[in-house]
Specification:
2 domains; single chain; about 40% helix; seven-stranded mixed sheet; Oxidized Rhodanese, domain 1; alpha/beta; about 20% strand
Length: about 180
Amino acid sequence: MSRKSSSRAASSSSQGSRPRGVNESNGRGGLRIAIAIGAIAIAVLAVVAVVLVSGFGSTTTSSATTGQTVVHGQGGSWTNVTPDRLAQMLQNKDFTLVNVKTPYVGEIDGTDLFIPYDQLTARASDLPQSKSAKILVYCRSGAESAVASQTLLDLGYTNIWNLDGGMNAWQLSGRTLLNKGPS
């Protein structure tokens, strides 16, 4: 073995399996970069999670003691209520109760109107004329009534309420539904 070959072999074995030109300080720098990239990735995931949980731009303010949650939609807000809160409200009813579930699967006693959520705009003349009238909407699970709440905002209504969890939550709370058929 020549002198040059043996010195390359010795040099190569002292650096282990690292590629030529990489030394300890470069290795630590790479580690620092990897940690920084990991921290950025975690921060991005945290922001995405907050956006997903908050409903893509809508925000909520909750009060467990009142059974109400304010949801901020586009151009205004509505109030989600629990089944217990709705039951209290029905004792001194001062609102129009609208079943927006399509197709009809039943209703809560005291329902005033059945207007499928996707027909609210077309049937706006069936709704109270006053844009400040209190309107409470519900569906089976709360998904269609959330869309209905936003539609009511779009129509200019300002006093909108929504049964959180819909008829499913109503029944899980021990209450019953009527089946009168759509009117």
